[in-house]
């Protein structure tokens, strides 16, 4: 039987890999000093820089000595780009770890409350334990919604201030716009056979009215005229 080949041994004089622990925040230099200052301002208000400041604020000293600042900022930026591309694995892992931490906090606070001697201390610890349990449940619900988004079935409705109309019927092909025809009012006359004109007859002689009335005489007038 052939003996298994031995793995090549690394040379003893190979220098160990040097770990980077840079502490300077990387900033892109611009063509002018104003552009460089603007790049640094955009870096300070960026989401990854905000996360970096929170992470390193209360971190242990021995971890901060080994931490490389540009590498941490780049890792945060890569997580953001992954979410933009639809990769939610980092978000799912984050929520799951948060739920586990909240569960551990719930157990620890429950034990603290049960071991407390005073009723006030016991009540405070158990109240905080229930808050941790509620946050754990909400975190798991958020994770479930990301994994399996809920499906919403909604019907379209046209809601107005007046009467409401709900369009739930089958969709039909659109009809063309109708042309508005304005018909003028016309005097229509009957045909010649159906016309019946009145016979006015011959013109009559002109006559006056009240022919028998007589003119007034002087006896009917006043004797003295008023001034």
Task: Please give a structural write-up.
Residues 1-10 have a biased composition (Basic and acidic residues). Residues 1-22, 201-227 are annotated as: Disordered. 44% of the residues lie in helices and 2% in strands. With 227 residues, the protein is mostly helical. Strands 1-2 form a two-stranded antiparallel sheet. The model has no long low-confidence stretch (mean pLDDT 78). Among the domains are: 20-87, no CATH class; 88-149. The chain has six helices and two strands.
Describe the largest sheet.
2 strands, antiparallel
- For the secondary structure, the number of strands is 2
Judging from the principal axes of the Cα atoms, what is the shape? elongated
The gyration radius over C-alpha positions equals: 51 Å
Q: Per DSSP, what share of the residues sits in E-state strands of 2 or more residues?
A: under 5%
DSSP helix count?
6
Taking the alpha carbons of the first and last residues, their distance comes to 169 Å
H/E element order = HHHHHHEE
Give the neighbour order of strands across the main sheet.
1-2
| Mean of all residue-level pLDDT scores | 78
What are the low-pLDDT stretches, counting only 5+ consecutive residues below 50? none
Structural class: mainly alpha
Helix amount:
40-55%
Biased composition (Basic and acidic residues): 1-10
Region (Disordered): 1-22, 201-227
In short:
The protein has helices at residues 33-44, 47-55, 61-66, 69-84, 89-115, 119-147, and strands spanning 157-158, 165-166. By secondary structure, the protein is an all-alpha fold.
């Amino acid at each position: 039987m052939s003996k298994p080949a031995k793995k090549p041994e690394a040379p003893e004089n190979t220098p160990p890999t040097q770990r980077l622990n840079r502490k300077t925040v990387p900033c892109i230099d611009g063509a002018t000093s104003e552009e460089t200052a603007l790049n640094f301002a955009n870096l300070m208000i960026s989401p990854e820089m905000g996360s970096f400041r929170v992470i390193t604020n209360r971190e242990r000293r021995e971890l901060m000595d080994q931490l490389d600042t540009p590498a941490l900022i780049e890792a945060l930026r890569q997580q953001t780009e992954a979410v933009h591309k639809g990769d939610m694995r980092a978000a799912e892992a984050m929520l799951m770890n948060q739920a586990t931490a909240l569960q551990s906090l719930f157990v620890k606070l429950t034990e603290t409350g049960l071991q407390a001697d005073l009723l006030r201390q016991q009540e405070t610890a158990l109240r905080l334990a229930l808050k941790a349990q509620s946050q754990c449940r909400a975190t798991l619900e958020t994770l479930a919604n990301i994994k399996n988004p809920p499906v919403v079935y909604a019907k379209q409705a046209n809601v107005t201030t007046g009467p409401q109309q709900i369009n739930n019927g089958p969709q039909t092909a659109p009809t063309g716009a109708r042309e508005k025809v304005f018909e003028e009012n016309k005097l229509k006359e009957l045909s010649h056979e159906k016309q019946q004109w009145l016979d006015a007859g011959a013109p009559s002689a002109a006559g006056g009215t009240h022919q028998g009335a007589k003119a007034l005489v002087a006896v009917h007038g006043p004797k003295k005229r008023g001034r």
